[in-house]
Amino acid sequence: MGDAVMRAASFHPCRRATAVRAGVLAGGVLAAAVALAHDPSADPEKTEAWTPVPPVVATPVGAAPSDAVVLFDGSGLAAWESERGGDAPWKVADGAMTVVPGTGGIRTRRDFCDIQLHIEWRTPAGTRGFDGQDRGNSGIFLQERYELQVLDSYDNPTYANGQAASIYKQAIPLVNASRPPGEWQAYDIIWKAPRFSDGGGLLAPARITVLHNGVLVQDDTVIAGTTEYRGAPSYAPHGCAPIYLQDHGSEVSFRNIWARELQAR
Ligand code: MG
Asked: 132: CA distance to ligand 1 center in Å?
Protein backbone atom coordinates (compact mmCIF):
# COMPACT_ATOMS: atom_id res chain seq x y z
CA MET A 1 0.00 0.00 0.00
CA GLY A 2 1.35 3.44 -0.90
CA ASP A 3 2.32 6.06 1.67
CA ALA A 4 -0.28 8.45 0.32
CA VAL A 5 -3.01 5.94 0.97
CA MET A 6 -1.81 5.32 4.50
CA ARG A 7 -1.67 9.07 5.19
CA ALA A 8 -5.14 9.51 3.79
CA ALA A 9 -6.45 6.69 5.93
CA SER A 10 -4.58 7.57 9.10
CA PHE A 11 -6.83 10.28 10.49
CA HIS A 12 -9.13 7.82 12.16
CA PRO A 13 -8.22 4.35 13.49
CA CYS A 14 -11.38 2.70 12.17
CA ARG A 15 -11.00 4.23 8.74
CA ARG A 16 -7.35 3.19 8.73
CA ALA A 17 -8.23 -0.42 9.60
CA THR A 18 -10.86 -0.47 6.90
CA ALA A 19 -8.40 0.94 4.43
CA VAL A 20 -5.79 -1.67 5.33
CA ARG A 21 -8.29 -4.51 4.89
CA ALA A 22 -9.52 -3.06 1.65
CA GLY A 23 -5.95 -2.68 0.48
CA VAL A 24 -5.35 -6.39 0.90
CA LEU A 25 -8.41 -7.12 -1.19
CA ALA A 26 -8.32 -4.43 -3.78
CA GLY A 27 -4.65 -3.50 -4.14
CA GLY A 28 -4.14 -0.49 -6.36
CA VAL A 29 -7.85 0.23 -6.65
CA LEU A 30 -7.71 1.48 -3.06
CA ALA A 31 -6.00 4.76 -3.89
CA ALA A 32 -8.84 5.77 -6.17
CA ALA A 33 -11.40 4.62 -3.62
CA VAL A 34 -9.87 6.70 -0.85
CA ALA A 35 -9.67 9.69 -3.15
CA LEU A 36 -13.35 9.32 -4.02
CA ALA A 37 -14.19 9.03 -0.33
CA HIS A 38 -13.03 12.60 0.13
CA ASP A 39 -14.75 13.91 -2.97
CA PRO A 40 -18.40 14.81 -2.33
CA SER A 41 -18.92 15.22 -6.05
CA ALA A 42 -17.72 11.70 -6.92
CA ASP A 43 -20.08 9.52 -8.91
CA PRO A 44 -21.29 6.72 -6.59
CA GLU A 45 -21.66 4.36 -9.56
CA LYS A 46 -17.89 4.38 -10.02
CA THR A 47 -17.49 2.23 -6.88
CA GLU A 48 -20.27 -0.26 -7.65
CA ALA A 49 -19.23 -3.81 -8.65
CA TRP A 50 -22.00 -5.74 -10.39
CA THR A 51 -20.02 -8.84 -11.26
CA PRO A 52 -19.34 -11.57 -10.46
CA VAL A 53 -22.84 -12.22 -9.18
CA PRO A 54 -22.71 -14.65 -6.23
CA PRO A 55 -24.60 -17.88 -6.86
CA VAL A 56 -27.87 -18.18 -5.00
CA VAL A 57 -27.87 -20.64 -2.09
CA ALA A 58 -31.12 -21.48 -0.37
CA THR A 59 -30.82 -21.62 3.41
CA PRO A 60 -33.93 -23.29 4.81
CA VAL A 61 -34.22 -23.07 8.58
CA GLY A 62 -32.99 -26.21 10.26
CA ALA A 63 -31.80 -27.84 7.04
CA ALA A 64 -28.62 -27.94 4.98
CA PRO A 65 -27.91 -25.15 2.50
CA SER A 66 -28.91 -26.04 -1.03
CA ASP A 67 -25.31 -26.39 -2.26
CA ALA A 68 -24.21 -28.69 0.59
CA VAL A 69 -23.36 -32.37 0.42
CA VAL A 70 -25.71 -33.92 2.98
CA LEU A 71 -23.76 -36.55 4.90
CA PHE A 72 -26.37 -37.46 7.48
CA ASP A 73 -29.97 -36.30 7.80
CA GLY A 74 -31.22 -39.05 10.07
CA SER A 75 -32.40 -41.36 7.32
CA GLY A 76 -29.43 -43.72 7.22
CA LEU A 77 -25.70 -44.19 6.89
CA ALA A 78 -25.46 -44.52 3.11
CA ALA A 79 -22.80 -41.79 2.95
CA TRP A 80 -20.57 -43.64 5.43
CA GLU A 81 -18.55 -46.82 5.63
CA SER A 82 -16.72 -48.70 8.36
CA GLU A 83 -13.01 -48.03 8.73
CA ARG A 84 -12.76 -51.82 8.71
CA GLY A 85 -14.53 -52.09 5.38
CA GLY A 86 -18.20 -52.54 4.56
CA ASP A 87 -21.19 -50.61 5.75
CA ALA A 88 -21.05 -48.32 8.78
CA PRO A 89 -22.14 -50.35 11.83
CA TRP A 90 -23.33 -47.53 14.08
CA LYS A 91 -26.91 -47.25 15.36
CA VAL A 92 -29.42 -44.94 13.68
CA ALA A 93 -32.51 -43.83 15.61
CA ASP A 94 -34.53 -40.68 16.24
CA GLY A 95 -32.66 -38.68 13.61
CA ALA A 96 -29.25 -39.43 15.10
CA MET A 97 -26.40 -41.87 14.61
CA THR A 98 -24.67 -43.25 17.68
CA VAL A 99 -21.30 -44.92 18.16
CA VAL A 100 -21.55 -48.63 18.88
CA PRO A 101 -18.44 -49.02 21.04
CA GLY A 102 -16.00 -51.60 19.77
CA THR A 103 -17.19 -51.49 16.17
CA GLY A 104 -14.58 -48.96 15.07
CA GLY A 105 -14.77 -45.56 13.46
CA ILE A 106 -16.67 -44.62 10.34
CA ARG A 107 -15.70 -42.43 7.43
CA THR A 108 -17.44 -40.76 4.52
CA ARG A 109 -17.40 -42.69 1.27
CA ARG A 110 -16.54 -39.43 -0.42
CA ASP A 111 -13.26 -37.54 -0.21
CA PHE A 112 -13.05 -33.87 0.73
CA CYS A 113 -10.40 -31.16 0.63
CA ASP A 114 -11.38 -27.61 1.63
CA ILE A 115 -14.80 -27.61 3.25
CA GLN A 116 -17.28 -25.88 5.47
CA LEU A 117 -18.61 -28.58 7.76
CA HIS A 118 -21.62 -28.48 10.05
CA ILE A 119 -21.99 -31.31 12.55
CA GLU A 120 -24.03 -31.70 15.72
CA TRP A 121 -23.03 -34.04 18.52
CA ARG A 122 -24.17 -35.19 21.92
CA THR A 123 -22.27 -36.98 24.65
CA PRO A 124 -24.09 -39.49 26.89
CA ALA A 125 -26.08 -38.12 29.82
CA GLY A 126 -24.96 -40.89 32.14
CA THR A 127 -21.43 -39.95 33.20
CA ARG A 128 -21.08 -41.90 36.46
CA GLY A 129 -17.71 -43.62 36.61
CA PHE A 130 -16.31 -41.77 33.61
CA ASP A 131 -13.88 -38.87 33.85
CA GLY A 132 -11.37 -37.02 31.71
CA GLN A 133 -10.75 -38.55 28.33
CA ASP A 134 -13.10 -41.44 29.11
CA ARG A 135 -16.20 -39.23 29.32
CA GLY A 136 -18.02 -38.82 26.03
CA ASN A 137 -14.98 -39.08 23.79
CA SER A 138 -15.17 -39.16 20.02
CA GLY A 139 -13.56 -37.00 17.39
CA ILE A 140 -13.98 -35.49 13.97
CA PHE A 141 -10.94 -36.19 11.82
CA LEU A 142 -10.60 -33.89 8.81
CA GLN A 143 -9.06 -35.74 5.91
CA GLU A 144 -8.85 -38.79 8.24
CA ARG A 145 -5.77 -37.36 9.93
CA TYR A 146 -6.44 -34.19 11.89
CA GLU A 147 -8.69 -34.49 14.95
CA LEU A 148 -11.06 -31.86 16.22
CA GLN A 149 -11.82 -33.32 19.64
CA VAL A 150 -15.31 -34.31 20.72
CA LEU A 151 -15.50 -34.75 24.48
CA ASP A 152 -17.78 -34.06 27.40
CA SER A 153 -15.90 -31.02 28.69
CA TYR A 154 -18.67 -29.76 30.94
CA ASP A 155 -17.15 -29.73 34.43
CA ASN A 156 -14.77 -32.49 33.38
CA PRO A 157 -11.11 -31.45 33.68
CA THR A 158 -8.52 -32.95 31.37
CA TYR A 159 -5.45 -31.64 29.57
CA ALA A 160 -6.54 -28.44 27.86
CA ASN A 161 -5.23 -29.42 24.45
CA GLY A 162 -7.37 -32.54 24.66
CA GLN A 163 -10.70 -31.04 25.75
CA ALA A 164 -13.71 -30.45 23.51
CA ALA A 165 -12.92 -28.18 20.52
CA SER A 166 -9.19 -28.68 20.86
CA ILE A 167 -7.10 -29.74 17.92
CA TYR A 168 -5.99 -32.84 19.71
CA LYS A 169 -2.67 -32.21 21.50
CA GLN A 170 -1.99 -29.17 19.30
CA ALA A 171 -4.33 -26.28 19.96
CA ILE A 172 -6.31 -25.34 23.08
CA PRO A 173 -9.74 -23.82 22.30
CA LEU A 174 -10.12 -20.09 22.98
CA VAL A 175 -12.98 -20.75 25.41
CA ASN A 176 -14.93 -23.71 26.75
CA ALA A 177 -18.39 -23.38 25.18
CA SER A 178 -19.54 -26.85 26.25
CA ARG A 179 -23.11 -27.72 27.11
CA PRO A 180 -23.95 -30.36 29.72
CA PRO A 181 -23.84 -34.03 28.75
CA GLY A 182 -27.03 -35.23 27.09
CA GLU A 183 -27.58 -31.92 25.26
CA TRP A 184 -26.99 -31.40 21.56
CA GLN A 185 -24.02 -29.24 20.58
CA ALA A 186 -22.75 -28.01 17.24
CA TYR A 187 -19.49 -27.43 15.47
CA ASP A 188 -19.25 -25.20 12.41
CA ILE A 189 -15.88 -25.72 10.82
CA ILE A 190 -13.92 -24.06 8.03
CA TRP A 191 -11.19 -26.43 6.91
CA LYS A 192 -8.36 -25.55 4.56
CA ALA A 193 -6.47 -28.64 3.48
CA PRO A 194 -2.68 -28.73 3.50
CA ARG A 195 -0.89 -28.20 0.20
CA PHE A 196 1.97 -30.37 -0.97
CA SER A 197 4.39 -29.98 -3.86
CA ASP A 198 4.66 -32.61 -6.58
CA GLY A 199 7.76 -33.79 -4.76
CA GLY A 200 5.81 -34.26 -1.53
CA GLY A 201 7.09 -31.23 0.37
CA LEU A 202 4.71 -29.16 2.48
CA LEU A 203 3.76 -25.97 0.65
CA ALA A 204 1.12 -24.79 3.15
CA PRO A 205 -0.12 -26.35 6.39
CA ALA A 206 -3.79 -27.03 6.99
CA ARG A 207 -5.80 -24.35 8.78
CA ILE A 208 -9.01 -24.57 10.76
CA THR A 209 -11.63 -22.20 12.12
CA VAL A 210 -14.25 -23.62 14.47
CA LEU A 211 -17.39 -22.27 16.10
CA HIS A 212 -18.61 -24.36 19.05
CA ASN A 213 -22.27 -23.71 19.74
CA GLY A 214 -21.86 -20.49 17.77
CA VAL A 215 -18.80 -19.33 19.70
CA LEU A 216 -15.36 -18.92 18.11
CA VAL A 217 -12.99 -21.51 19.58
CA GLN A 218 -10.37 -21.99 16.84
CA ASP A 219 -9.47 -18.89 14.85
CA ASP A 220 -7.64 -19.80 11.64
CA THR A 221 -5.48 -22.19 13.64
CA VAL A 222 -2.46 -23.60 11.84
CA ILE A 223 -2.37 -27.40 11.96
CA ALA A 224 1.10 -28.72 12.81
CA GLY A 225 0.46 -32.12 11.26
CA THR A 226 -1.35 -35.31 12.15
CA THR A 227 -2.87 -35.32 15.63
CA GLU A 228 -0.97 -37.96 17.57
CA TYR A 229 -1.66 -39.58 20.94
CA ARG A 230 2.06 -40.16 21.40
CA GLY A 231 4.80 -38.01 19.97
CA ALA A 232 4.91 -34.97 17.74
CA PRO A 233 2.68 -34.14 14.78
CA SER A 234 4.09 -34.43 11.29
CA TYR A 235 3.00 -34.13 7.69
CA ALA A 236 3.14 -36.70 4.92
CA PRO A 237 1.73 -35.82 1.51
CA HIS A 238 -1.83 -36.83 0.76
CA GLY A 239 -4.79 -35.78 -1.33
CA CYS A 240 -8.44 -35.20 -0.57
CA ALA A 241 -9.68 -37.73 1.97
CA PRO A 242 -12.78 -38.75 3.96
CA ILE A 243 -14.17 -37.19 7.09
CA TYR A 244 -13.72 -39.75 9.88
CA LEU A 245 -15.67 -40.09 13.13
CA GLN A 246 -13.97 -41.84 16.02
CA ASP A 247 -15.11 -44.77 18.16
CA HIS A 248 -13.41 -44.06 21.48
CA GLY A 249 -15.64 -46.35 23.50
CA SER A 250 -18.31 -43.75 24.31
CA GLU A 251 -21.87 -43.75 22.97
CA VAL A 252 -21.56 -40.33 21.37
CA SER A 253 -24.31 -39.35 18.90
CA PHE A 254 -24.20 -37.19 15.77
CA ARG A 255 -26.86 -35.58 13.60
CA ASN A 256 -27.39 -32.94 10.88
CA ILE A 257 -24.06 -33.38 9.13
CA TRP A 258 -23.39 -31.51 5.93
CA ALA A 259 -20.39 -30.16 4.06
CA ARG A 260 -19.93 -27.43 1.49
CA GLU A 261 -16.95 -27.86 -0.76
CA LEU A 262 -14.95 -24.64 -0.95
CA GLN A 263 -12.99 -23.38 -3.90
CA ALA A 264 -9.28 -24.02 -3.79
CA ARG A 265 -7.38 -21.03 -2.52
MG1 MG B 1 -11.22 -38.11 20.53
From this structure: 11
pTM: 0.85
Q: Rounded to an integer, what distance in angstroms lies between the CA atom of residue 12 and that of residue 85? A: 61
Give the model's pLDDT for residue 31.
57
Least Cα distance to 252 among 168, 171, 199, 185 occurs for 185
Q: Tens digits of per-residue pLDDT, 7-31?
A: 433 334 334 444 444 444 444 555 5
Q: 70 CA distance to ligand 1 centroid (A)? A: 23
Q: What is the pLDDT of residues 141-179, one digit of tens each?
A: 999 999 999 999 999 999 999 999 999 999 999 999 999
CA of 241 to the centre of ligand 1 (A): 19
- Expressed in angstroms and rounded, the spacing between residue 135 Cα and the centre of ligand 1 is 10
Q: What is the spatial distance between Cα 100 and Cα 77, in angstroms, rounded to a whole number? A: 13
Please state, in angstroms and rounded to a whole number, the distance separating the CA atoms of residues 256 and 115.
16
- Tell me how far the alpha carbon of residue 130 lies from the centroid of ligand 1, in angstroms: 14
Output the CA 139–ligand 1 centroid distance in Å.
4
Q: Map out the domains of the chain as residue ranges.
A: 3-47, 69-261
The CATH fold of domain 69-261: Jelly Rolls (2.60.120)
